[in-house]
Amino acid sequence: MRVRPLPRPHKGQTIAATPPDATAQWRVAGRLSRAHVWDNLVLATAQPGAAALRCVVIHDPRYHAPLVLATNLSVSAYALWCLYRDRWPIEQVPLAAKQMIGAQRAFVFGGESRYRLPELALLAGNILAYVAATATAVATGFWDRHCRPTCGRLRRVLFQVHFADVSVPAGALRKKASVTGHLPKGVQGHRRRKGSITPQANRLRQPKAA
To answer: Is position 187 within any domain?
Structure first.
């Protein structure tokens, strides 16, 4: 049997949702939230023996549309609601880092850089998200009549600013005391020679101890 978690219109008529297998409700800050649960679901194209899923539809009075979740976690509907409330704030920071500073297009080769680059990207994304939330919202165009302080709008504003027009703070900038004259620069810094192998491949080629 096909499960339809939400009603939908079809040819001028409304097709009702499938009755849920279970329901749940909880109250937070005076608001009553309700959840409909469907258990032991599989995709229409799934083969016999495929893993079963659960579908949970959460109706929160703060939102016009319900939250539809498909999960393989055997937890309560309230636990899923709490998990997704904690998930979106976490995902906002790397999303801002990827959109604002182009972290998804950055590539590194060093072992330490693989940790340092995500750390710097998360720090920059957190700062940019804070600036976007606290600064005055700027409309993207004449159609943006109810603009909100989001990272996307801040990105469009910064994209129109020329770097030469940015005011530089007074005083000398701190110079990093690192010796880099002996290191290759540019393309030569990551060019590989014929016959050379990376340290990771070298470890894989070492014979195992008897």
So the answer is: no
